[in-house]
Amino acid sequence: xxxxxxxxxxxxxxxNLARIYxxxxxxxxxxxxxxxxxxxxxxxxxxxCPRDMVRMGGYGRLLRFATHAIExxxxxxxxxxxxGTDGS
Length: 88
Description:
Elements lengths: L2 H26 L2 H9 L10 H6 L3 H14 L16
Helix pairs in contact: 1-2, 1-4
């Protein structure tokens, strides 16, 4: 990967992670809890932490998961997220 490509990829990762943070923060209403959620493997995401999901190109899938979970208001309730429908 060329240096410019690396820079763009890093910026995209940072922007997508920031968008997820901004989406999830109001649910927890706590910076520390939001950061913990981003770093904790989630069984509803295949035991991948949200931060790594964004890094691996799963931003679209994570966005749908988080949006649906917040709309439901029940973070412990399983939400079906299909593999291969990333949308990003």
